[in-house]
Specification:
single chain, 371 residues, alpha/beta, TIM Barrel, eight-stranded parallel barrel
Length: 371
């Protein structure tokens, strides 16, 4: 039994925060599933690295250009992503079946420049859902203020949604409410809700990266002990909010109709500071009804030396003190959370723009060869 299996027994699902065509076609993804992997997530940055950094997609790009020399790069991107996601969904389908639709999902994100446009987000979610057409697909919607109504609408239409780029406890609560409201609308319309799945992706390590930077600027030895503590402390209280929201009469009414909880998903859990444990954002946040989506190096570390034990509810008083001490040190966590959301959207937009330009160049090169 692997450490991934042991974590599943404790109620935490390990998903893989990476995807590429060779990973699927050469059997790497299947090998991870055999080790106990339960899902896959992707984002524009991951796809940019996979597509721009190799020739693995050139045959499909060439076919698309041959059928339409003026095809837009955005259409090429969506075609490439759709094929990868469909293949990955097929690999994960046995997991979906074995876990009765709890796990086995593959996530794909809407175009990041639509993160501040509710209607455009809804339209793209519908397009991706219908185009990929897999039961174990999850479409990712950023948890911006404009994204929240899109989440509710998509859930009400029966689509599986991964709500991403969550940082604060307050925004997490809004996301959970959007999920529940969407289910309530669907149930009120007499439509089934048992098959609708969702996760709320809370980003972790990025909080420490920014807070540590702010603490370092203070050049005050008394606050150095707070470094590397903010992210875990904040995330522990997200889990407490999850328990408060999904163990209420309001959700019980939906649960009686087959609804499942929207599990918190810990994202951005690779350790960026080499001074910290490589499993800092894994071993401190293990709890039932959670997901942790990990990059390749962290996945390998879990298998090699992970210590699966329930930890997310340990020392909540200590976590509370960390957040209190940060406030005393002059760290404005509301500002931190807002900046991280803005930076996250901008980062994904930059990756998408880079991929768009690279594919325009490839399109034009293939088109000129055809001529």
């Amino acid at each position: 039994m692997t450490n991934i299996n042991k974590l599943e027994q404790l109620g935490q699902s390990i998903w893989y925060d990476n995807i590429s065509r060779p990973m699927i076609t050469k059997g790497e993804l299947q090998a991870h599933v055999n080790e106990g992997l339960l899902g896959v997530t992707s984002n524009p940055t991951i796809f940019d690295k996979a597509i721009s950094g190799s020739a693995d997609y050139d045959d499909q790009i060439r076919e698309l250009v041959e059928s339409n020399a003026n095809i837009d790069a955005a259409e090429i991107i969506q075609s490439l992503m759709a094929k990868d996601i469909q293949m990955a969904c097929d690999v994960l389908k046995p997991v979906y079946d074995r876990t009765s639709a709890r796990d086995g999902y593959v996530s794909v994100e809407v175009t990041p420049n639509k993160a501040r446009d509710t209607q455009a987000t809804i339209e793209e979610v519908r397009l991706l859902w219908n185009r990929i057409s897999k039961k174990n697909l999850m479409v990712k919607i950023p948890a911006t203020k404009e994204g929240l109504p899109a989440v509710e609408q998509a859930i009400s239409e029966g689509m599986n949604i991964n709500v991403t780029l969550i940082f604060s406890v307050e925004r997490y609560r809004e996301v959970a409410n959007a999920y529940i409201s969407g289910l309530e609308r669907r149930a009120k319309a007499g439509q089934p809700i048992a098959h609708v799945a969702s996760v709320a992706s809370v980003f972790v390590s990025r909080i420490d990266t920014l807070v540590d930077e702010l603490l370092a600027k203070k050049n005050d030895a008394s606050v150095k002990g707070l470094m590397g503590k903010a992210a875990v402390a904040n995330t522990k209280f997200v889990y407490q909010a999850f328990k408060e929201i999904f163990y209420t009469p309001r959700f019980e009414a939906l649960k009686s109709k087959g609804a499942t909880v929207q599990r918190p998903l810990w994202g951005s859990t690779g350790t960026k500071n080499p001074a910290y444990s490589d499993l800092l954002y894994v071993e401190t946040l293990i709890a039932p009804h959670t997901v942790n989506t990990v990059p390749p190096a962290t996945y390998t570390a879990i298998l090699d030396h992970g210590k699966p034990t329930l930890t997310a509810e340990k020392d909540l008083d200590g976590a509370k003190k960390v957040l209190s001490d940060l406030a005393v040190a002059g760290i404005d966590m509301k500002w931190v959370m807002k900046k991280l959301e803005d930076d996250g959207v901008a980062s994904f937009e930059k990756s998408f723009d880079g991929l768009y330009k690279n594919l325009l160049d490839k399109r034009d090169a293939f088109a000129s060869v055809e001529v």
